[in-house]
User: Which sequence fits this backbone?
């Protein structure tokens, strides 16, 4: 007997990250095209990349959602119908939208499935009912909603619900922040957020001056709340982070994917496994973790003022491009490493495999002592290795 679990929805900030996330276990990915999304600094997808990415995901049973959640003016809307036709032709599974004008344009020009973005800050039952009447088939709830409140919305409204389970948080209601607009001249709600809330600010009271990151939120991490999400019937668990590394995309997809697969088979979680998954999540770049508003409304304890404790990412040495069975791994090196360092291969399923690096061969077949980033190198063959696997490195010199 299998047990019901929600969809795991991972960020895909680029075509490579899409492939990594899907290969490591994401049921769904979300991404942006060249326009109409909220991450103008991400490597947004060209039409050709969209086509390749959607084919890659669909071939492996995963689905693809495209964000159209920027706040648009009339002149922006003129270009939207053509993009909608492209998305329909490529068989995108849904679009994520926050603006009523965009929803109305989508309904007029396409049959695309509409998901309401968290940007619309839907927090209550009447709001969910109204968005449903406007054509939304799924609502990404505002991050301010607790799991208990989400359950009440789910019980009252026949609509799919999606909630954030992991990632960076806005200290403002998503979609209602203009700090970047006024401090950096960049419009948060049209793809330009400069994360101004993360900066250090000085506070002056009389003669006293204090420096503080008083608006910087801790990061969300909900691995121990998966059972609550499942019991509440939340349809999709979303991970923030289209701007983050492919190591991040792979690790969160693997960890949450493994946890949900475990529950699907066993119907419970074991504390040893939860400890292991939590330790894996601590190896990706993050601020101190919290559960945000998932259990109760976030307060002062959710602000991350101690920047010196920021957790840095475990170093990613390389990404496997090709596996020559029983011969070598062809890998693209991301950060340099040497003979004698410890390689840790992160397979798509199961525990990492570590071994001491005894040999590195360059593209011309010469044995070398150290790699250089951005180049292709042959590393010793490892059982269970696959193309797109991430290799972490522990340096010894
Ligand atoms: S500046 Fe901070 S609070 Fe405002 S939109 Fe950006 S991340 Fe969110």
Assistant:
């Amino acid at each position: 007997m299998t047990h019901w679990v929600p969809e795991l929805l991972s960020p895909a900030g680029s075509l490579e990250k899409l492939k990594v996330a899907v290969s490591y276990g994401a049921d769904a990915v979300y991404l942006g095209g060249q326009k109409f999304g909220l991450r103008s600094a991400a490597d947004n997808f060209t039409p050709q990349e969209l086509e390749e990415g959607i084919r890659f995901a669909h071939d492996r049973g995963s689905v693809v959602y495209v964000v159209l959640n920027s706040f648009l003016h009339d002149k922006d809307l003129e270009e939207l119908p053509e993009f909608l036709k492209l998305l329909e032709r490529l068989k995108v599974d849904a679009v994520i939208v926050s603006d009523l004008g965009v929803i109305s344009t989508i309904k007029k020009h396409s049959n695309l499935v509409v998901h309401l973005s968290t940007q619309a800050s839907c927090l209550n039952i009447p709001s969910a009912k109204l968005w449903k009447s406007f054509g939304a088939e799924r609502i990404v709830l505002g991050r301010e909603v607790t799991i208990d409140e989400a359950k009440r919305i789910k019980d009252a409204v026949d609509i799919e619900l999606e909630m954030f389970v992991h990632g960076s948080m806005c200290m403002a209601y998503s979609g209602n922040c203009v700090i970047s607009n006024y401090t950096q001249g960049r419009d948060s709600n049209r793809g330009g957020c400069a994360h101004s809330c993360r900066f250090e600010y000085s506070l002056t009271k009389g003669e006293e001056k204090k420096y503080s990151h008083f608006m910087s939120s801790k990061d969300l991490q909900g691995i121990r709340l998966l059972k609550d999400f499942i019991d509440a019937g939340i349809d999709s668990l979303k991970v923030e982070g289209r701007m983050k590394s492919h190591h991040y995309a792979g690790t969160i997809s693997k960890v949450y994917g493994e946890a949900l697969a475990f529950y699907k088979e066993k119907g419970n979680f074991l504390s040893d496994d939860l400890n292991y998954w939590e330790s894996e999540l601590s190896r990706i770049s993050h601020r101190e973790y919290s559960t945000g508003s998932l259990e109760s409304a976030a307060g002062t304890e959710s602000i991350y003022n101690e920047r010196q404790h920021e957790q840095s990412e475990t170093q990613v040495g390389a990404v496997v491009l090709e596996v020559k069975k029983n011969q070598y791994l062809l890998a693209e090196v991301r950060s340099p490493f040497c003979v004698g360092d410890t390689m840790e291969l992160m397979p798509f399923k199961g525990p990492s495999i570590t071994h001491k690096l005894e040999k590195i061969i360059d593209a011309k077949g010469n044995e070398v002592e150290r790699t250089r980033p951005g180049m292709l190198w042959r590393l010793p063959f490892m059982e269970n290795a696959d193309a797109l696997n991430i290799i972490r490195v522990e340096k010894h010199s």
User: Anything to note?
Assistant: Residues 7-309 form a domain with the TIM Barrel fold (CATH 3.20.20.70). The longest strand covers residues 316-324. The CA atoms of residues 121 and 173 lie 7 Å apart.
